Protein 1
Amino acid sequence: MDVASALAYLIYGLVGVVLMAQILVSMQPEEEQISFSQKYKVNYIIIVAAACAAGAWVALEVLLNFDEGSSNANNNHGFTRANALRYLGLSSYATQSQIKKAYHTKARTMHPNKGGHTEKFQNLQKAYTALK
């Protein structure tokens, strides 16, 4: 996902949450009891608002982990930090010890002497080198 798409998702998600909140506020009945159809609508709106918020959260994560282009990618053997972490199966908040452990765990299974593919093992090494 590129930056423009992530920004669009973030904006759409935040606008969706605001609109859903306004709809919920406008649906507040004056009387104490809420009909079944109103409860159904409220539950549906809460689910849609949660989906919008989740989309905004994902877009924000993408924006926060974005590396500024090819100059960093060339220095990191073709891997941005976010891509290298994803290749190792780690979150964006991984520590150096977690990165090292994940690398060694995957290297044991991907090594060509252990039946792995040479190209995949080389990509693993490039990802680890990019995170050092």
Protein 2
Amino acid sequence: MSESHTSKRAGSRAASTTAPASRRVRATQTTGPEAQQHLLRAADELFYRDGVRAVGVDAVVERAGVNKMSLYRQFSSKDELVMAYLERKDAQFFGYVEKSFAKHPGEPAKQLQQYFDDLAARASLEDYRGCPFVNVAVEFSDTEHAARQFVFRNKERLLARLTELATAAGADDPEMLANALALLIEGVYAASQTYRAGSGPVLAAPKAAALLIAAGLRCEASVLGFVCWSNFLRQWRNADTRAPVKMALCLSRRLPPAMPLPAESHDAVVAATRHWLTEAVIGLNLCPFAKAVHVKGQIRYAVSDAISLEGVLADLENELNTLVAADAAALDTTLLILPQALGDFLDYNDALFFAERMLKQLRLEGIIQIASFHPLYQFEGADPDDIENYTNRAPYPILHLLREDSIERAVQAFPDAEQIYERNQETLRRIGLAGWNKLMKI
């Protein structure tokens, strides 16, 4: 790739890759540092778009709007210009990486996930030409070439960063998780060029990353990889200092495998859930907003037959779409009841992560909110039998889907909404466990 000042070969090669007439810039007299920046910007554009081999120095000079001597005052050869281009791209690349990570400081699992969200968006742009380092590696077969060595260093640095975050997130095998994520990243680069912009394979990367991250932090494995990833959720939740100290901790109870419920059993499930709602949630005024929607018949009781996380998420997507499409006057809120799935509280917590991811993927953040209820609900710092846990205990695992605008109206109408949690604790301490059990008898 070395190119001398008098290389005719480079000049002839440049003839086919000169900038379009509309983009040509007349050469001007510029200072050294200014000329260098013009040349680097031009090389950045042309090398990335058309390839390092295809673009000669004449094309770079013409695009930069400087004379050829300005180039050779700054760079002794094309080799040196290419290395400067790679250094510039390296800085840009890790700028993207760290910008993604900075969105979730101190939360390594979410940092890893965020990078794939941002990468998928960037790789879906029409002018995206993939990874510049992959492109350069393809152009130079000699692995000892300085450009190829630079590519190796770039990739090794990224892998080290991924391993660092995987370790901080508590992965069982941080190196394996980092390698899997690195492979997925390379797949995004390739798919962005072999499929159309915004194609399915590229857009699937965030979900694939979520599955890899969850599997890498799992506490138990299954054939499908969907069971319990408590380490992941514990790290993710405990790091979120913005949330109130009502985060669920570990309480594991494995339920026996279940068969889908007979259709007639749905009525019994709904009856038990409705009894809990009327006697506890409304009867004890645990949620002062619940009575109105109950009286108006605006609550949908959706019983899921799912026995796996995959099935739960499929039902959740259907219920989210149903709620959003419905007239709020007829359907204000949904209780997705899970009598056959997520009986283990850790599994339920894992599902909450993916439920929140689904809100984001469906672009329902700020529109729908998901509240959580479970027979074994346990707040952080509470013992399993503490009565305060019962504010979020229900006969079955439940995902409560609420409209954000309805919540806002209810809060505005209730002057001391911030006191609800403390008041509920006082109410439950007053009635005790015996009083609760008496209420729950049907």
Protein 3
Amino acid sequence: MALADGAGRLQGRSGGWEIAALRGDIFAAGAALLGVLTQRLSEPCLKLPGSASVSATDLQQCSFEDIEIPSYTAGQLIDEAQAVSRAEAAYTEALATDSPDAHSTVGLSIGELWLSRAKRLKGEESFALLHRAGESFQKVATMKKSGADDETRASAWYNLACVASLLGKADHAAEALQRGLNHVPPAQRRAWAAEACKDQDLSVVRGHAQVQAVLSAYQVQSKGYSKGNQM
């Protein structure tokens, strides 16, 4: 967190959407860590760092107005839900621009934030977040070519396949997986398909005929599957 704010101060007020996105990434990582700790500890929290120090050299190069206070309360304790909320706020700030790069990069990050959070919840809360993740990934996947490169769109489609799988929609997962692979360089498609065979997010639908058809096109057979014996 101090890293993002320190970078913003050194770049002055024109740091751009990247600084807000970095802040979002840091809070998202914190939320993921707290999610893991929740399985072992009761109500874990993270303590936000104190104010990042500014060297004498930095002070000489910056005017008083250039040195901003941190975007958080130093020493404050936050839980997973608060970390997620702060990540969302930072990403929303980063999206307050017309930059296509911002909308593709941050859109993917927001989708990953909701997907990660959804997997740590159950019931209606998880269901709602999976739909929010799907909406974010869909926006990136269907952006114009000038707005997102093939690698970003491939990741968005792949994540959409994961969301569809967790929602139990095998046909949608198969379609998204195929669309994602279409954006992957031919030489790398087999590796992506092999990864899909191991991804726990796809385990629900991996034995479905349509998903197997996509994987078998790249000569990859998922573990536990054989012809004539669909899971």
